[in-house]
Write a structure and sequence with these properties.
By secondary structure, this protein is of the alpha/beta class. It has a single domain, classed as Ribonuclease H-like superfamily/Ribonuclease H (Nucleotidyltransferase, domain 5). It is about 40% helix and about 30% strand. It has 5 helices and 7 strands; from the N terminus they run H-E-E-E-H-E-H-E-E-H-E-H. Strands 3-2-1-4-7 form a 5-stranded mixed beta sheet. A two-stranded antiparallel ribbon has the order 5-6. Strand 5 and strand 6 form a beta hairpin. Helix 2 packs parallel to helix 4.
């Protein structure tokens, strides 16, 4: 088997979520770009009653679901919640049965647990690299995703 066949594509996944009110109507968007060919896939959507964190997560979920094979994924997000969850918190949550310490000293189910479980399933297929982008800082892809997510939130 040649190295060309086994070489995985490197893709950039830019994501953003938006919510008018929290909870309220929300939108998500992603830009998926093959690093070698520069070919892009763009998508967005919305939900009537949601939270900003859920929209941030769904943007990543939808972007990863769009990949038909295993890739090296460079994920760019302005959501510390999503990036810390994927990069730091998820391992401990899984070890504790998707539970976290509560304020009263006991344990409670992780918020948005079904979305976290779906993300966990999706990232297993890929080699993931996480990058934080400051929101509303002029980053072109982040700004594009923000505009698409806001537009999607206004159509639900």
């Amino acid at each position: 088997m040649s190295s060309e066949v086994t070489k995985r594509s490197v893709v950039e996944l830019y994501t953003d979520g938006a919510c008018s009110g929290n909870p309220g109507p929300g939108g998500w968007a992603y830009i998926l770009r093959d690093k070698a060919t520069k070919k892009e896939r763009v998508d967005s959507g919305g939900k009537r009653d949601t939270t900003n964190n859920q929209m941030e997560m769904i943007a990543v979920i939808e972007g990863l679901k769009a990949l038909k094979r295993s890739c090296v994924v460079e994920l760019y997000s302005d959501s510390s919640y999503v990036l810390q969850g994927l990069n730091e918190w998820m391992k401990g949550w899984k070890q504790k049965g998707w539970r976290r310490k509560s304020k009263n000293g006991g344990f409670e189910e992780v918020k948005n647990v079904e979305l976290w479980k779906e993300l966990d399933q999706l990232i297993q297929r890929h080699e993931m690299h996480y990058h934080h982008v400051r929101g509303h800082s002029g980053h072109p892809e982040n700004e594009r995703c923000d505009q698409m997510a806001v537009a999607a939130s206004q159509t639900v």
